[in-house]
Amino acid sequence: MKTTTIGPNRLPVEAVQNCLRRGKTPFYLYDQGLIRKRCRLLQEMPNAFGVFPRYAMKANSTRAILQEIHAAGVGIDASSFNEVRRAEMAGIPLENMLLTTQEAPFGEDLDTLVTSIEQGLRYNICSQTQLENIAVRLAPEKRRFSIRVHPGVGSGESVTRNTGDKYSCFGVHLSDLPALLSRAHELGVVFDQVHVHIGSGGDPAVWEENIDRELGFVETYFPQATRVNFGGGFKEARMPHETAADVYKLGQTAKKKVEEFYEKTGRKLTTEVEPGNFLVANSGYLVTRVADIKQTGDQGFTFILLDGGMEVNLRPLLYGAQHPFYILDEHGTVRFDEFHTDQHCEEREDLIVVGRCCESGDSYTLQDDHAIVPRSMIRPRVGDTCIVGGVGAYCSSMTPFNYNSHEQISEYLLTERGECHCIRSRQRLEQIVQNEHSLPPA
Ligand SMILES: *Cc1c(COP(=O)(O)O)cnc(C)c1O
């Protein structure tokens, strides 16, 4: 049966075919229309006294993606100073950025950071060292910061993505606040914003509970705060069995609590949210070619080998994350769509899908305990196109792409006009080795 789009967000097969004619697999393909829609949803979140969304740019830092999100009116949440510089190189003004980082620079790096803060970069204090190093370098009237508080409670889709419990050290822990505040007072520092980010993809109920906790901090410790940032971490659904957080509902809850806070204290707080996944995860597709099919004996499994695995999508290996598959034959006919499995008359089999790296963990079908679990799907043929969905966030920006000396792959944007636009070219092998030096002469 001929279908013309794949997946719940209806990516046109024609767009994939167009890109396939232009460059070799594997490559990423992003859906501009979906990114724009997600930006609007954030901006339309219910709120009490204004909401300012930011994009956690570590999710995907490619220039055109940053420009797209900036053009939509969404700010930037940077997690390193290099991210700030990269966003600046994409044409984004410093005033649009908040830097929330584990880095504590010194020397020349500190000088550059201080200059950027003087020029408008918003800085989120995450430690006593950061406060001490930076505040003294700024003129007294420039000593206005956001502060990230470690709430002692977090939630993430996996242990490694919980940023709010005692096993992670993001932000200033509550128990350190009194000491930090007295030092801040000596330095004449004003904290005009309070920030808490509890983790990635966690339980929406915990996200809502955090609002109460955070407003409690604002009331107890931060009389000068006029803004409150609730972090990102909205759970996104990549697979059919997953449920995404309802951002509208989270907004309603936040609105109600911020209104109650106003009634109680007379303080009107502007809110900020800063998701990464929510804005870009499902806009991204990894287009690969089925390179080979192998067997491990009668008692074993059937393996489908794709030409792109952990070096372009580390999430299965890192988190046990699952991604949907879409299979096209050479004519572009859809043979399998993870979200429309009822439409396929071919019989399904339990298959293991792997990448091309020499690493047995280079598999798409892992659980978070690293056990390999076969996926029920139709058996592709060598030469078919296998599209992996949900790769817009934490793939291009996070993978060990040069492992096994593979080149960093190209990226395309499917524009709202329906054109395939190359936003990053494939790296060349020479670029991988360009900074290497030979042995000294004997
Ligand atoms: C990573 C991160 C985010 C975004 O998390 P998502 O799960 O992608 O929404 C937001 N804020 C901070 C401080 C982060 O480190």
TrEMBL record:
Keywords: Decarboxylase, Lyase, Pyridoxal phosphate
InterPro entries reported in the protein's UniProt record: Ala_racemase/Decarboxylase_C, DAP_deCOOHase_LysA, De-COase2_C, De-COase2_N, De-COase2_pyr-phos_BS, Orn/DAP/Arg_de-COase, PLP-binding_barrel
Keyword Lyase in record: yes
Annotated Orn/DAP/Arg decarboxylase 2 N-terminal domain residues: 36-281
Transmembrane segments annotated in the record for this chain: none
CDD domains for this protein: PLPDE_III_DapDC
GO biological process, one term: lysine biosynthetic process via diaminopimelate
Active site: C358 (proton donor)
Required cofactor(s): pyridoxal 5'-phosphate
Gene Ontology molecular function: diaminopimelate decarboxylase activity
Pfam families referenced in this protein's UniProt entry, alphabetically: Orn_Arg_deC_N (PF02784), Orn_DAP_Arg_deC (PF00278)
Residues annotated with N6-(pyridoxal phosphate)lysine modification: K58
Stretches assigned to the Orn/DAP/Arg decarboxylase 2 C-terminal domain: 27-384
This protein's name: Diaminopimelate decarboxylase
Organism in which the protein naturally occurs: Chitinivibrio alkaliphilus ACht1
